[in-house]
Amino acid sequence: MARVKLATAWLGGCSGCHMSFLDLDEWLLQLAVLADIVYSPLIDAKEYPANVDVVLVEGAVANEEHLRMAHTIRQRTKFVVAFGDCAVTGNVTSLRNPLGGAEVVLLRSYVELTDCRPGIPTAAGLLPVLLDRVTPLHHVVPVDYYLPGCPPPAAHIRFLLEALAGGSEADLPAEMLRFG
Amino acid sequence: MSVKTLTIDGVLVSARADETVLQVGRHHGIDIPTLCQLDGVHSVGACRLCLVEVAGSAKLQAACISPVSEGMVIQTDTPRLREYRRTIVELLFSERNHICAVCVANRNCELQDLAVRFGMDHVRFDYLSPQVEVDASHERFGIDHNRCILCTRCVRVCDELEGVHTWDLSGRGVHVRVITDLNQPWGESETCTSCGKCFHACPTGAIFQQGSTIAEIDRDRSRLQFIVTAREKKQWLV
I need a labelling partner for B79 at 20 to 30 A (CA). Which of A64, A139, B62, B143 fits? Predict the structure, then answer.
């Protein structure tokens, strides 16, 4: 069987889901037999390649860079997995939504709660432009599988990857669908 | 007391005439999902999770407030009901700010458990993300409206078990809130006895103990059941 082209991506999240991925421990050696990791914050690849089979997308969509990346991922990937609560629900990243739009959030972070040199960074290209609302991944692109958890336990990641690498549908049992 | 016979999920059962469909189901091991229902206080049919199909009726009926009748034929677990129940839970998650990962009730929450039970892997609706308050003015407890699903268990235990009626509802539609006294800060309530029954009754992380943090909530619903058993059966079972 052909080796699976696997990618992982990191949008608006804390990287805890990627830490949980590393918690796969020795099974990572097995994964290296089943799959080529073609793009990930954990490897040195600058561009998201074409014809990816499976991608684990951590984090919510919080800024324009995330939005562009989400569309690129969708165009170039067969199975998109919303990886962890931020990608699935918005989770902690979306805690800012009740405050209002991007302007209010930037004021709160860079002016109201700052002890020294308050001011919103405005230089072009310095920071990705914040979206007014943080959204789950499936609000901006179609998602094939959802793997909730904050973070999803390594055993759940393994269950999903084993199924997808084996060419079968990843039908997660209900207990693996717990948020939080 | 007369006896009624009816059919639930293909099983012929008999019931006392004053029982509800939910009670009869439970006596026969049929687990109809509930959320607002709480043993010992009256049922209000607020959450709609216990909706069942009754043959001959186009309307779905809330099992917790539907009295049995002779010859009823009831289905409690059909594809239509499962879809509606999942949708209800999704709507509850989308209405306020239920962030399980940072909730005091994480892994000890009836709403979270129901999401698992109905296989809710994501919410199909837009989140409303309302800006709502946390009232931490009471010295022992707090109310986080971000997590409140308006089941009114707190209202009912306070009124019917404690006999105080500190809690009630105000507002309409999405603006409904549970309130203490005449919408005063909980800590300034003159009627609250600080008994904690609302805390033990709350199904989510809305009513919490001061000082508890993520996943630390420690409810004991048996303390409510003790009072109900003592009152109804005159048995003080410790």
Answer: A139
